[in-house]
Amino acid sequence: MAASNKIIISCAITGATHTPTMSPYLPVTPSAIIDQAAEAAEAGAAILHLHARDAATSRPTGDLDTWFHILRSLKQRTPAVLNMTTGGSTFMSIEDRLAAPLAAKPELCSCNMGSMNFGTYTMIPKYKGKWKHDWEEDYLEASRGAIFRNTFADIEAILDKLGANGTRFEFECYDVGHLYNLAHMMDRGLVKLPMFVQLIVGTLGGIGAEPENLVFMKKTADKLFGDQYRWSVLAGGRHQLNMGTMAATMGGNVRVGMEDSLYAGKGKMATSNAEQVRLIREILERLSLEIATPDEAREMLGLKGGDQTAF
């Protein structure tokens, strides 16, 4: 099968949404992030979507030393594409969010295509009074009054500054309007083709995880971008596997990982990111779909190669 027809599995290792209390298996230290990311790649993930966490507090961090430790360690252990977040967390400034990617010059970065409410406070009642760290409850509650900022100026800065380093982007679209923002940037010549578009469903503040919503987003992307893009689906929580499977049957790629869901099936907590990768890989292969290798993913997305990074 030609590489262009294979399925890229992305794995988002830890993110900035889930906190340590929520799962004993969530990687919340640099060493755990490194180990779980390498295992996810071995299980079949061609792309590893990365956030950094502080070794002492387990909080999301933009610290350069922490980031470079993670990136250099993973580069020694896996050929997978290392995809750095530019989202960081809702509570980081755009300068803090960009500092590590600008220094590291990765092959691939996320780029969020619009400002939005990003509510995680609804998870508090499930864990109230049982927190491992003092910061967790306040961190989640703060999302009630916060905005995940991604202004047009912020997006322009990401595209300009990181694009100058040869970095390509995973364009994260949490709602239909984000697709139109991306089309606007494409019309202005700020986006290089072909694009990699992540259709995101099931986040509080974005579009719901319903099949008709995914179909509508895909139809809208087709109308706006024609055949000039590749796409994937990120579905939050219990929707991860079913929406990913739906995307693959529609010709898309898939994303799993403990940033998006802490489970590996109904009522079963995932013990690792690799477990989620193995689950979706088994589903895809039973559907007679082939899985892309890291080098095939690089070819499909037009990436510059791991030897062209600064780590």
From TrEMBL:
<dbReference type="InterPro" id="IPR013785">
    <property type="entry name" value="Aldolase_TIM"/>
</dbReference>
<protein>
    <submittedName>
        <fullName>Uncharacterized protein (DUF849 family)</fullName>
    </submittedName>
</protein>
<dbReference type="GO" id="GO:0043720">
    <property type="term" value="F:3-keto-5-aminohexanoate cleavage activity"/>
</dbReference>
<keyword id="KW-0862">Zinc</keyword>
<dbReference type="Pfam" id="PF05853">
    <property type="entry name" value="BKACE"/>
</dbReference>
<keyword id="KW-0808">Transferase</keyword>
<dbReference type="InterPro" id="IPR008567">
    <property type="entry name" value="BKACE"/>
</dbReference>
<keyword id="KW-0479">Metal-binding</keyword>
<dbReference type="GO" id="GO:0046872">
    <property type="term" value="F:metal ion binding"/>
</dbReference>
